[in-house]
Write a structure and sequence with these properties.
Largest sheet: 5 strands, mixed
Strand content: 15-25%
Pfam family, one: ROK
Strand order of the largest sheet: 3-2-1-4-5
Number of helices: 8
Protein name: ROK family protein
Number of domains: 2
CATH topology of the largest domain: Nucleotidyltransferase, domain 5
Helix content: 25-40%
Radius of gyration: 19 Å
InterPro entries: ATPase_NBD, ROK, ROK_cs
Shape: globular
Length: about 290
């Protein structure tokens, strides 16, 4: 009889990725498919498992999602613009179909955990992970535990001060001056008007300024030992160094900002699929009651 396996799932705005691994973490199978309807996602994931016995599953979810294990609604999606997902509980649906316990966290919290354990955050006690792509999100892990409270961190919607001369309309439907609305992928593309970010120093300056202000906010609020940056926007050559310069300007040497004196405080992500790796770590930690 084959040994039970672990199922890791990461949900995103456009795609869902999954991996099946054995008890040692070795991948046995993996795949991806468009996000679509949540009921269809559940069916496809159950089909992917086939006749394997699942010991536990971990779901790294886009937000907002109820990530408190003590809640009766643990894993349920809160109102979201993604059609059909509001109120759906993918993890619970899979748990019932596969007869397996589950763990849920945000995709960015899961990525933070993976980078802390396996990637660019190794050796640091408190690791913040920031992704700058279609949106801006962030998670924090301290001693292997991610930050969750009444909800979960939504750092992309922190307000920032507009840089002088920036009259670009916010891409966020909720806020005129949040970091996501001014520096995430859609905002960057609107600013570029067909150019490439590495060839547009003025646009890059705005993006670095807002992300630097975000870093300052994280330094003052969370005081992490290290901040790991991921996401498509951050793949732009030289951008991370510009963000660090802007962050130092924003913190202005105050208080907990001394941590920024250490080399390698802002670092690029090391894992290609950090959210999925985090979901697998979550699954392997689940204890059947």
């Amino acid at each position: 009889m084959s040994q039970p396996v672990f199922l890791a799932v990461e949900t995103g705005g456009t795609k869902i990725v999954w991996r099946i691994a054995d008890a040692s973490g070795v991948a046995l199978d993996e795949g991806r498919f468009p996000t679509g309807r949540p009921e269809d996602a559940a069916e496809q994931l159950v089909a992917a498992v086939a006749d394997r016995e699942v010991a536990a599953l971990g779901v790294a979810s886009f937000g907002p999602v109820i990530a408190d294990p003590a809640s009766d609604d643990y894993g349920r999606m809160l109102p979201t613009p993604k059609p059909g997902w509001a109120g759906f509980n993918l993890a619970r649906a899979l748990s019932e179909r596969l007869d397996a316990p589950y763990a849920v966290d945000t995709d960015v919290n899961a990525a933070a955990r993976a980078e802390a354990a396996l990637g660019a955050g190794r050796g640091a006690r408190a690791v913040a992970y920031v992704t700058v792509g279609t949106g801006v999100g962030g998670g924090l892990v301290v001693d292997g535990r991610t930050l969750k409270g009444a909800l979960h961190p939504e750092i992309g919607h922190l307000s920032v001060r507009r840089a002088p001369g920036d009259a670009q309309a916010s891409a966020c439907p909720f806020h005129d001056d949040c970091v996501e609305g001014l520096a995430a992928g859609p905002a960057v593309q609107a600013r570029l008007a067909g150019r490439r970010l590495e060839a547009a120093p003025g646009v890059r300056g705005f993006v670095a300024d807002y992300l630097g202000q975000l870093v300052a906010a994280l330094v003052f609020a969370w005081a992490p030992d290290r901040i790991v940056f991921g996401g498509g926007v951050m793949s732009t050559p030289g951008l991370l160094a510009e963000v660090e310069t802007a962050a130092r300007r924003a913190v202005a040497g105050y208080g907990s900002a001394v941590v920024m004196g250490a080399a390698g405080y802002l670092v690029p992500a090391a894992l290609e699929h950090a959210g999925l790796e985090g979901a697998l770590l979550m699954a392997r930690d689940v204890k059947r009651l």
